[in-house]
Write a structure and sequence with these properties.
6-stranded antiparallel sheet, mainly beta, globular, 21 strands, 5 helices
Length: 335
């Protein structure tokens, strides 16, 4: 499913693989019934886009969430379908934000195990040992997430930290900087949930450089022991893919860009927990404070994330948690 324009209105269209047995799914066809979800009458500002990955409830119906502006409020509308062609809107939205955010983009709803690091299929319902994560993008700014309980009968989401409110800008963040439009998927072969995200570069040098933005390293994510935050670590394939390869973006003259392995060391190393130190009055630190205190910020408008060895963790006062590998990133708290 994708967002398209129909007579200048944002609508949701579908395409089906011509050959589902093709592992690369190289050919697609669109049914004549598109758009399968036209823009609802109460959506304002022509803001109706970014469908989630579809999941199936225990009643056998498919669900998909779509970002929308309803009455000036950023909302996530849920639509249900038995055949993936005819969709009906749920009476209650999955989430409604504050008036400061008229449109929410790139929503994502996925289950996480309350214990362990293995990922779960998107249709796994909340229940004993399983909770959910709702991720929202703040209108071309940053990505924010909240852990909570998803009810697949009412299609509602109850936050684990209601004190943070409905404004997603007060929720947790995956990363510091302009990491945006993330989407996750379940890797059934390795039983992990992988997050992809886009990094925008706003320093004005895109034309001379030849690009303005790039895909961040894919990262495996799982729930922290506190049940409120996510743990994340770059996927293991990066270790083998980078071995012996030249720098990315070497445009001649020996110039090396952000693809250079020299820029890829995260203070704390594998297993560093960025929330354990409590500087500045004993508060937990989020990605912004952690990056600044660990010296990971370099240059204008970008973060050169670095990961290296556990010895670097000791140097910065970070602790390796027993039985866990990754970095716990917490939303930046207000002063």
């Amino acid at each position: 499913m994708e967002t398209s324009f129909s007579t200048s209105e944002q609508v949701q269209n579908e395409a089906f693989a011509k050959n589902p047995s093709d592992p690369l799914l190289r050919e697609w066809e669109k049914p004549s019934c598109n758009p399968v979800i036209p823009i609802p009458a109460d959506v304002t500002g022509n803001n109706f886009r970014d469908p989630t990955e579809a999941w199936r409830g225990r009643d056998g119906l498919w669900r998909v969430g779509v970002g929308a502006e309803v009455g000036g409020l950023g909302s996530i509308l849920v639509f249900r379908s038995a055949d993936f062609l005819r969709w009906e809107r749920n009476a209650v939205p999955l989430h409604v934000s504050s008036r400061g955010i008229p449109e929410l983009e790139c929503p994502d709803l996925f289950p996480v195990a309350e214990k362990g690091t293995e990922g779960l299929d998107v249709s796994t319902p909340s229940g004993p040992g399983v909770t959910h994560v709702l991720k929202l993008s703040d209108l071309a700014r940053e990505d924010h997430y909240m852990v909570g309980r998803y009810d697949d009968e009412a299609d509602t989401f109850v936050a684990a930290e209601p004190e943070r409110g409905v404004d997603c800008r007060n929720w947790h963040r995956f990363d510091h900087g302009h990491l945006y439009a993330s989407k996750s998927f379940y890797d059934a072969r390795k039983k992990r949930r992988v997050l992809w995200a886009w990094v925008d570069e706003t320093d004005g040098g895109g034309i001379a450089r030849g690009w303005a933005g790039f895909q961040a390293f894919p990262r495996a994510i799982w729930l922290d022991a506190d049940g409120k935050r996510l743990v994340q670590w770059p996927v293991e394939e990066i270790e083998t893919e980078e071995a012996g390869r030249p720098a990315v973006g070497d445009g001649g003259g020996g110039r090396r860009h952000e693809g250079d392995r020299r820029h890829r060391e995260l203070p704390g190393g594998r297993g560093g927990r960025l929330r354990d130190p409590k500087p500045r009055g004993g508060r937990d630190i989020g990605p912004e404070m952690a990056a600044g205190s660990a010296g990971a910020l370099r240059g204008k408008g970008r973060v050169r994330a670095r990961w290296s060895r556990p010895v670097r963790a000791a140097r910065h006062g970070l602790r390796r948690p027993r039985g866990a590998h990754g970095c716990v990133l917490q939303g930046v708290q207000a002063p």
